[in-house]
């Protein structure tokens, strides 16, 4: 307003004008409320998936995550699986083992079962449930992936891939497949054995598992620190005592005589 119209007003005045014009709402007026929705009508129409991180086995085991598959229409527990952490590959494995069950189920609004038959081969399903990325092939037929240098074997096909992108398929069991238009390419992996730095990026859902592994490595690598006492922190040194028996000054005759002499002198002065 000041730049375009030469009008300078206080913030509260502007807020009042905008409120009267209906173009500004207070925080209370902007608050939205979650509206409950109806269940889906048919079994298998919608399956909700979520993970719950908890110390499920108390002190008898490490913390873990429970993956739960729930049918929306019936509340049937479709799949329950304990995993180390809530990661992409843990969901892939649970989805591959997905089984139907009728335990703790409600009656759906419609009796239809909307689950579809699995019309792909098991090997094809593994190709679907994998992590896919693309990498640019350099002049040396190499590219980087997960802090590893991968070099394609030189052949008639790979020589024509310089300056192009290849597909990387990473599976839950650790296998890595490099493909160009569905054709697998032979390669060699050079692991740089790099240390983890502050710039290393970790998937958020796997952070708890990674930190647990790091702590275990640190505990094995170094002994527990020694806790110093207050005397050690202040560099206090205890003085030594003289050899022989300790003198009882309260019952020492010489001390008693000097004390009586001092009292007598005070009495004479008074």
Terminus-to-terminus distance: 94 Å
Mean pLDDT: 78
Order of strands across the biggest sheet? 6-9-10-11
Radius of gyration: 38 Å
Q: Spans with pLDDT under 50 lasting ≥5 residues?
A: 196-203
Largest sheet: 4 strands, antiparallel
Discrete helix count:
8
Helix content: 25-40%
Descriptive notes:
The protein has 270 residues and is of the alpha+beta class. Among the domains are: 42-122, no CATH class; 131-191, no CATH class. Helices cover 26% and strands 23% of the residues. It has eight helices and twelve strands. It has helices spanning 2-5, 11-21, 27-30, 88-96, 122-128, 207-221, 230-233, 253-269; strands spanning 42-43, 47-54, 64-71, 77-83, 110-113, 131-136, 142-145, 148-152, 165-170, 176-180, 183-184, 187-191. A hairpin with a 5-residue loop joins strand 9 (165-170) and strand 10 (176-180). Mean pLDDT is 78; it is low at 196-203.
Quick structural summary:
The protein has 270 residues and is an alpha+beta fold. It has helices at residues 2-5, 11-21, 27-30, 88-96, 122-128, 207-221, 230-233, 253-269; strands at residues 42-43, 47-54, 64-71, 77-83, 110-113, 131-136, 142-145, 148-152, 165-170, 176-180, 183-184, 187-191.
Annotation keywords:
270 residues; four-stranded antiparallel beta sheet; alpha+beta
């Amino acid at each position: 307003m000041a730049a375009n119209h030469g009008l300078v007003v206080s913030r509260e005045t502007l807020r009042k004008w905008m409120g009267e014009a209906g173009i500004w709402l207070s925080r209370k007026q902007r608050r939205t409320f979650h509206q409950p929705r109806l269940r889906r009508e048919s079994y298998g129409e919608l399956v909700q998936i979520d993970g719950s991180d908890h110390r499920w086995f108390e002190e008898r085991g490490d913390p873990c995550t429970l993956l739960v598959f729930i049918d929306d229409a019936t509340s049937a527990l479709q799949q329950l699986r304990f995993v180390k952490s809530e990661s992409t590959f843990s969901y892939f494995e649970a989805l591959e083992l997905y089984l139907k069950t009728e335990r703790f189920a409600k009656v759906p609004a419609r009796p239809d079962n909307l689950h579809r038959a699995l019309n792909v081969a098991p090997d094809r399903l593994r190709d679907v449930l994998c992590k896919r990325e693309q990498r640019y092939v350099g002049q040396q037929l190499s590219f980087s992936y997960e802090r590893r240098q991968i070099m394609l074997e030189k052949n008639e096909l790979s020589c024509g891939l310089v300056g192009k992108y290849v597909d990387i398929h990473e599976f839950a069991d650790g296998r890595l497949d490099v493909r160009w238009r569905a054709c697998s390419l032979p390669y060699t992996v050079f692991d740089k054995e790099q240390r983890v730095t502050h710039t290393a990026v970790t998937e958020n859902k796997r952070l708890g598992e990674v930190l647990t592994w790091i702590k275990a490595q640190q505990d094995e690598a170094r002994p527990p620190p020694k806790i110093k006492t207050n005397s050690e922190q202040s560099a206090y040194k205890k003085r030594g005592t003289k050899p022989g028996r300790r003198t009882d000054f309260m019952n020492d005759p010489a001390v008693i005589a000097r004390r009586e002499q001092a009292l007598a002198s005070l009495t004479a002065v008074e």
